[in-house]
Every structure is written in structure tokens, then in C-alpha cells.
TrEMBL record:
It comes from the Bacteria. Gene3D superfamilies: 2,3-Dihydroxybiphenyl 1,2-Dioxygenase, domain 1 (3.10.180.10). The keyword Lyase applies. One of its GO terms (molecular function) is lyase activity. PROSITE patterns: VOC (PS51819). This is Lactoylglutathione lyase. The lineage of its organism: Bacteria, Bacillati, Actinomycetota, Actinomycetes, Kitasatosporales. Pfam families: Glyoxalase (PF00903). Residues 2-114 form the VOC domain. It comes from Streptomyces gancidicus BKS 13-15. The keyword Mitochondrion does not apply.
Length: 115
């Protein structure tokens, strides 16, 4: 398994204000689905932060996203470990395959691969 990037997911109703604020730190918008916006560093594109109002298709909002090269393999490993799967493995209409798992401290981790 290869981790491609790790992105904190900030929960906020002030999405435009966060775009402006993180822009002061050098981030630029690279994705915006209305309910989630991702900002990235132009000089280091995997340095990212996402701002979300609420996850559109999951029962809970993730605290962190981890993009991996093979989400199916990671899902099997995590499931076999007995960790709590919060949102099942599925293909999303915006081009990712993902699942959510709860870490030992209760944080929800969105594990994904782009299709």
C-alpha cells in the first residue's frame, strides 16, 4: 500500500471565508463540490486542506482523508483488523472509491482512491 496524500477536513459553514483565509497562506482552490472545497499549495500540490459543510453521501463527516493507491486492499486489511467501518466501501459519483473507518480515538478517517 502506498499513501499518496493526507488531507485534514475542516468542518465549517464559512467556506468562502476559509478560501480567503487559507489563500493568505498561499493555498489555492483545486476542487469545489459545493459541500467540500479543497485548497492546495501550488508549489507542493499534495499539501492540502479541505473545508466541508457536511459529507453529501455518508452518515458522518470525516476528520481526515487518506488517499491510497489501492483502497480495496486497504479496506480488506482494515476490516480484517476488526476496526469499526463507519461508511462502507463504495464508488462515489465524483470519481472516488472510498470508505470511512474510526481510529482508536474516535476520529473518522476517509480512505480513498481516485478511479
Amino acid at each position: 500500500m502506498t499513501v499518496r496524500r493526507v488531507v485534514p477536513n475542516l468542518h465549517s459553514e464559512a467556506v468562502p471565508e476559509n478560501r480567503e483565509f487559507y489563500g493568505l497562506l498561499g493555498f489555492e482552490e483545486v476542487m469545489n463540490h459545493g459541500w467540500i472545497m479543497t485548497l492546495a499549495s501550488p508549489s507542493s500540490p499534495t499539501a492540502q486542506v479541505s473545508v466541508m459543510t457536511a459529507d453529501r453521501t455518508a452518515p458522518v463527516d470525516p476528520d481526515l482523508s487518506v488517499e491510497v493507491d489501492d483502497v480495496d486492499a486497504v479496506y480488506e486489511t482494515v476490516r480484517d483488523s476488526g476496526a469499526e467501518i463507519v461508511h462502507p466501501l463504495r464508488d462515489e459519483e465524483w470519481g472516488v472509491r472510498r470508505f470511512f473507518v474510526r481510529d482508536p480515538d474516535g476520529r473518522v478517517v476517509n480512505v480513498l482512491s481516485h478511479r
